[in-house]
Amino acid sequence: MVTQTENVSIDPRGDFSSEDLKLRPINCELNPLTRSDASALFTQGDTCVLTSMLGPVEVKSQNLNIEKAHVECIYRPKAGIPTIEDKLRENVIRDTCESALLTVLHPRTTISIQIQELDNRCGIEACAINGACLALLIGGVPMKFTIAAVHCIVDKDDKVVLDPDHCKAIGKRASFIFVFDSLEKNLVTVHTSGRFRMAQFNDAECMSRAASQIIFNFYRRIISNFHNKSLLTADTKVRNTEAETVVKSEPMDV
Amino acid sequence: MTEIVLPGDRISAAEELAKLKKVILGPGLRRENEQVVVCKAGRLNYKEPNAYWIDSYQQRYVPVRGDAVIGVVTAKAGDIFRVDIGAHEQASLSYLAFESATKKNRPDVNPGDVLYGRLIVASRDLEPELVCVNSIGKKGKLGVLTDGFVMNCSLNLARMILRENCPLLRSLTKEMPYEIAVGLNGRIWLKAKSLRETIALGNAILAAENASNEEMSKICENIGNILFT
After folding, report:
1. Where does the record place the Exoribonuclease phosphorolytic domain (chain A) (predicted)?
2. Whether B124 contacts chain A with CB within 8 A
């Protein structure tokens, strides 16, 4: 009945061992906040963010755009006021989310995304983008596709490591954030820092693209659970008692 | 049919059907060239003979023409009232859009009043416009709502209550007398005999959001038992 976005086999050429293609365990709680339009508490390993979204809401006159919605992102660090680094993250997240949103359907409005960092143990940007995507999904704003962000580093031994925790990331030489869309797995955003060889970049991209499928599968599962819980009311079907808002996932390997 | 779809998915069944006859795409679906693409996460629904739509969870109201909504008057500006309906923009309401209102005989509406109105203009490029009369100039059920209590809920709950086969309001009527107005913008106005009953009603309605039909009547019975023992 439904053609899902093409199921690319996670590692078509078998270039990587399953040990390499491992993301930290992903957990999520939907709508922990009551006052926002949609919110998500998203964790990847020990990295944790709380994202919420409002929209489409009233637009400030200086941001008014008569052709499309204005997208804004507010990133709050764990302590203190946002630094320049946080402002840069804000821009990356905003531009990434804007490319996934169908902003033309809501002209003269604002779609606002708030991100509160709760714990940064490496890969906070990727975690924030994934959390923001989930919040937008359940917020009911129209989107072209879903997005998945994967963090990747070149460690001190010159090896490419996918989604490391903070222990593995000590002395890293470079770090990458890749964001893919759910349609063709095309790159939406690349954000890099540090020094690396082109071959390492290509390796990291291939690994991240393969691993993004894990995140897309996770989206589908958690959204199914969410809707089975909240929309089964009118049906006479037996309720899915196992559907809980909190989906506990085992460590996800491919 | 209970498939959950995510943005970017293609509905091949709708594409196949479109080759034979016209297909109606409802909320959450878009046509891109010859493809039917999902743009909201939710449950895919199909109604004979040719309508597809997505039932998605939403808290924020987007105005749709013909919807009955509950709004709060925020300002009186010359010939029009400004009404907050929970959308991105305030709706306008002409003072002539009330039953038997004339230039001389202005309706008694003040900022802070709660209204039940119908949207006659709701386009993404235009300011939404409300009226409190139907097409033959009678007020029907529309107009200012006096007393009572307004609460917010998700759009899904509002739509569910208004569905014809929803047993919630019917089983609540067995327990106590009350008045209710449900706005499709996720606002519910309630009026019962006492404050206690109003609060109980509100809680019963909000609790019904995740309940099945059988659970709903159980919730309503419980409320009645607690209130009148």
Report:
1. 23-142
2. yes
Q: Is A222 domain-assigned?
A: yes
Tell me the average pLDDT of chain B. Answer: 91
Q: Using a CB-CB distance cutoff of 8 angstroms, which residues of chain A are in contact with residue B59?
A: 37-38, 139-140
Range of the domain at B31: 4-55
Number of domains comprising chain B: 3
Is A16 inside any structural domain?
no
CB contact (8 A) between residue A142 and residue B58: no
Give me Rg for the CA atoms of chain A. Answer: 18
Q: Distance (Å, rounded) from C-alpha A214 to C-alpha A254?
A: 8
Residue pair A115/A72 in contact (Cβ under 8 Å)? The answer is no
Same domain, B133 and B153: no
Bridging pattern class, strands A110-119 and A70-76: parallel
Report the CATH number that the domain containing residue B183 is assigned in CATH.
3.30.1370.10
| Residue A246: predicted pLDDT | 44
Write the pLDDT tens digit of every residue in B193-223: 999 999 999 999 998 887 888 888 888 888 8
ipTM: 0.89
From the list A142, A112, A133, the residue with the least C-alpha distance to A49 is A133
Q: How many CB atoms lie within 10 A of CB B178?
A: 17
Does a structural domain hold residue B177? yes
Q: Which amino acid is at B190?
A: L
Asked if residues B17 and A7 have their Cβ atoms less than 8 Å apart, the reply is no
Which CATH number fits the domain that encloses residue A122?
3.30.230.70
Pair B28, B84 in one domain? no
Say what the pLDDT of residue B226 is.
Answer: 83
Name the burial class of residue B205, with classes exposed (0-12), middle (13-18) and buried (19+) by CB atoms within 10 angstroms of its CB.
Answer: buried
CA–CA distance, A132 with A101 (Å, rounded to integer): 12
Q: Which of A3, A233, A238 to mutate to test the interface with B (most CBs of B within 10 A)?
A: A233
Nearest residue on chain A to B210, judged by CA atoms?
A: A230
* Dist. CA B152–CA B139, nearest whole Å: 24
- Burial of residue B227 (CB within 10 Å: 0-12, 13-18, 19+) is middle
Query: pLDDT below 50 — which residues of chain A?
Result: 1-9, 231-250, 254
Specify the pLDDT at position A235: 41
Tens-place pLDDT, residues A45-99: 999 999 999 989 999 999 999 999 999 999 999 999 999 999 999 999 999 999 9
Domain assignment present for residue A153? The answer is: yes
Provide the domain limits for residue A118. 26-231
Task: Answer yes or no: do B13 and A142 touch at CB < 8 A.
Answer: no
Structural tokens at position B79 = 């010939």
